[in-house]
Structure formats: structure tokens, C-alpha cells
Amino acid sequence: MRIVVLASGRGSNLEALIDAQRDARLPISIAAVLSDKADARALEVARAAGIAAIHVDPRAFGSRREFDDALFAAIAGARPELIVLAGFMRIIDPAAFAPWLGRIINIHPSLLPRYPGLHTHRRALEAGDHLHGASVHFVTAELDGGPVLGQTRLEIRPDDTPQSLAERLLPQEHRLLVACVGLLASGRIRWRTTGIFLDGRPLANPLQLDEHGEWIDDAG
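C-alpha cells predicted for Phosphoribosylglycinamide formyltransferase:
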């Protein structure tokens, strides 16, 4: 499966995908990495791996929609079958990605539908939650509101801070993204207008990945 990754920051989830591709744990080919930040470490990670690294500068366009159109024109040029948002910190105009519905996913650091948007670790602590986690969902017009295909959970400790919670969750995020991309690349997970299907059967609830990277539900 040809993949394009969008990232704005350090690219640690991108590194997890590259490692899984290199180790033949994922049947994917990362065709390009695109970023809205010229200094994003994700672009350096891509270049080091021999992957096309493309910066699309929002300041070069007169409107958000013009930027989004240029971004998706560059994406289309890479001919991906799947777009992965891995720390891409921009809201995309729904009209720009409408042709890609069902072929674009995002990883978000919360147990959606709890805490869409920013500062998820702080918000979980402030709410007194006992569990936190990450979700991979299909991208729709609603911010972090598309159908969730997989999640990983983490117990919150009494002494956790937003930083410690983020650091402990990150390795599980990596495993979750790799596992979800694996299901998509193998054709086991598909999103139709009537919902998410696993092996042709409707998926009633998001799949759960344990701390060892194994699906708790029957996802292989």
C-alpha cells in the first residue's frame, strides 16, 4: 500500500512507520512526507530514509483553502492509497479532503470522543480520569470526530503530569498507529458509508490494543 504521511513536528510516529516498513512488519511503501513547517524534524526523518520530503508553506497562499488545495495536489502527485496524519497540526478544509474520505486517518492522543483538539493530557488530568490513551480514526469534517477504528489505553498514575503522561503514552501511540495501518494495508479494515468493517463484518466498537501491541479483540 502506497502511503503519504503528513506531519508538523518531530515525526516519531513517522519513524515508527518507517521502522515497521523496513523490518517488513508492514506491507507499505511510504511515497512522501509533507509538512507545513520547513523545520519540522519529520522532513529530516524522511530525507534520512530516502523518502520524498515536501514542504508546503501556508504563508505562500492567500487563504487556508488555497493552501489545502495545493497540499492535496502535492499529495495526489504521490499517488497514495492511504493518507496518514501523524501530528499534523492544521485543520484541513473538508472540501479539500472530500475525495479522500475513507482513505485518510489521524492519530489523536486521547480516548475519543473524549478530548478532541489540543492539550489532551492536561485535560485528562484536570478531569480526574483514571484512564487515558490514544485513538486512530478516519478523518471527517468534524474535528477529531470521525469513526474510530482502534485505541490503546493507559492507566493514569497519581503523580502523573501532562509531560510524564505524554512520554508514557508515546510508545503505545507508535504501536497503535503501526497496527491500524497494518489492518488497512492488508485490506482487513474498510470504512463504508454504513460504518467500519473488519473482515467484512461491522465493527461495533473500536478495536483495543494492549500494552504489548496485541489486539484484545479479534484483529489478528
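The radius of gyration is 17 Å.
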